[in-house]
Each structure stands twice: as C-alpha cells, then as structure tokens.
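Deliverable D5.2: sample structural annotation.
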Amino acid sequence: LYVGADDGYVHVTLDDGAEWRRIDAALPDKWLSRIVASQHDLATVYVSFTGYRDDDFSAYLFRSVDFGATWESITSNLPAEPINVIREDPTSDQILYVGTDLGVYVSLDQGASWLSLRTTLPTTPVYALLGHPRDHELILGTHGPSAFVPDIRAVQAAAPAPRRHPSPTARHTPS
C-alpha cells in the first residue's frame, strides 16, 4: 500500500499497515498530484507532482521499481505542463497515459518517450484517466467536468509485448 499527501510526502507499507516507511527523500518538494501502484508489477509505483501553486509549470513524473527505494524521472520529452494524473494501460505494462493541464499523452515504452493524444480533445486540463479493459477505451475526466472516451485499440496494438512480472499475489520484499 502507498499513501501520498498533497504536501509531497509519500509512504509505503509492505506489511498491511503495521509499519510505514517514508519514501519521498529523492522526490521534488512539490504538491503530489497522483500516486499509482502498478497493476502489472507489485514493486512498481508511479508518482506525479505539480508546481503550479508556485508558478512552476515543469513536468514532474517518476517511477520506482523497488517499492520507492529509488526513483527515476520518466518525463522524457513531455512538455513543461503540470501533470495531474498517470495511469497504466490495463492490457500492457508498456503503455502509460498522463493527463496534464493542457491535455493527455501516451507512452508506448514505459515513459522513455511520449506522444500527444490530443487529436480531437480541446486544450483542457485532464484530471482523471481510466483505461477500460473490455471496451478498449480511455475515459478522460476533464475540467468542467466533461468526459471524452477515445478508442485506444490502435495505441494498444502499437505497443511492444508486455513484459513478464511476478504474480501480483505473490509476496515480494524489496532487496
């Protein structure tokens, strides 16, 4: 379990809440906008931050593959826009989606590079994302509130094959 707070603090428990460990020392001192545990790999977690309250419009997006012991930036070629949300694709661990203050982006390579998905989406903040596993649609919750539901079959077909990970039900302890 992971817990994040708007002040940027991030904690993890590996024993169902008996003990919590703070894991944000290497992360920016910004407003935590989202924390998402991977649905494909037990040890992977994503966090996004926003600095817009400080007039900082940089992109802050990180991944850990060891329960938060270490972090790597996966902003790559994302434009300087506050990030509001990150989600994994339900069918592939290779596909990531981010919603920013100006739209939505996709990565087919776990954040090594990003492409815009704003072809028919107006320039609007995206605050919620959900990949529908059955209907192959990406549900976008935007400012307003409004919703857009593009078909993502072409995105899913373009991604490399998913990597094999340990079973999410298997107990895994960080090394």
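Annotation notes: The helical segments are 153-158. The radius of gyration is 16 Å.
The annotation will be released with the project's public dataset once the embargo ends.
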